[in-house]
Amino acid sequence: MATPRSIPNTLTIAGSDPGGGAGIQADLKTFSALGSYGTSVITALTAQNTRGVTGVHPVPAAFIAAQLDTLLDDIAIDAVKVGMVASREVAETIRDSLTARRPRWVVLDPVMVAKSGDTLVDDAGIAAVRDCLVPLADLITPNLPEAAVLLDCPVPTDRAGMQAMAPTLRELSAGAVLLKGGHLRGEACPDLLITADTLEWLEGPRIDTGNLHGTGCTLSSAITARLALGDALPEAVAAAKAWLSRALEQSHRLAVGQGHGPVHHFHAWW
Question: H or E stretch including 14?
Fold first, then answer.
């Protein structure tokens, strides 16, 4: 566990994005920008750019286990973020490794639905995430379509619908849930933090930008970094949300690709 004088170690378990806007690359940039030392375990190689994904090459579960075991044998991890997991074997591998050498914080970003609305994992993959990884997590960070997939229900279209999801989301046995409201219409992007005892709305403006690639990865890794640095959960979520808003506001300074560009992870530095 990190002391107040040490730089904490953070871990991302996710896929690789050659364009650098999402996945492992976005997580490592976020960890670094917020002052933690980033480590990584790669679960898949992808061929993608700002316009889309053209190929995915999954890493075998046995090699994911080897990466995790070798890393955790040597480096004390303060907080871990888990991204997209598409098979039960990989979900079980991650669960077993993190249970054996559990970091203080586990944040799960259940990536299941693309921005196009397409479901990225099959029913077996959804069940694996729900059964193996959600109960392991101190926080899960689904957007509205992902929460609907987890609960097998319609996607909410307003705040009342988001709040109505809270009891069932609690039943998934995660420590807490950050239900992201970016898919709602309007000028605001309200998120709902659901804990065992409270419901807390976190308000934020909708940033007028098309540079939305990797925002989910970036937010969850920002929360992970803030938790590793010593924030309590509500403060970590609020700080990460504010930091992401600034990264979106400054994304126009980048000229990356011809599609949905990335946020500016290092907006405070350059």
Answer: strand 9-15
Angle at 171 between CA 169 and CA 177, to 5 degrees: 40
Q: Looking at residue 52, what is its pLDDT?
A: 86
> pLDDT grade, residue 185 (50/70/90)?
confident
pLDDT digits over 226-235, tens only? 999 999 999 9
AA identity, residue 177: V
DSSP secondary structure of 200-229: EEE--BPP--S--BTHHHHHHHHHHHHHHT
Please state at what angle helix 144-151 crosses helix 159-170, rounded to 10 degrees. 40
259 CB-near residues (< 8 Å, 6+ apart): 49, 50, 51, 52, 213
How far is residue 266's CA from residue 270's CA, in Å, rounded to a whole number?
A: 6
- CA gap 63, 47 in Å, rounded: 20
Q: Is the pLDDT of residue 100 over 90?
A: yes
Asked if residues 196 and 4 have their Cβ atoms less than 8 Å apart, the reply is no
Quote the radius of gyration of the chain (alpha carbons, Å): 17
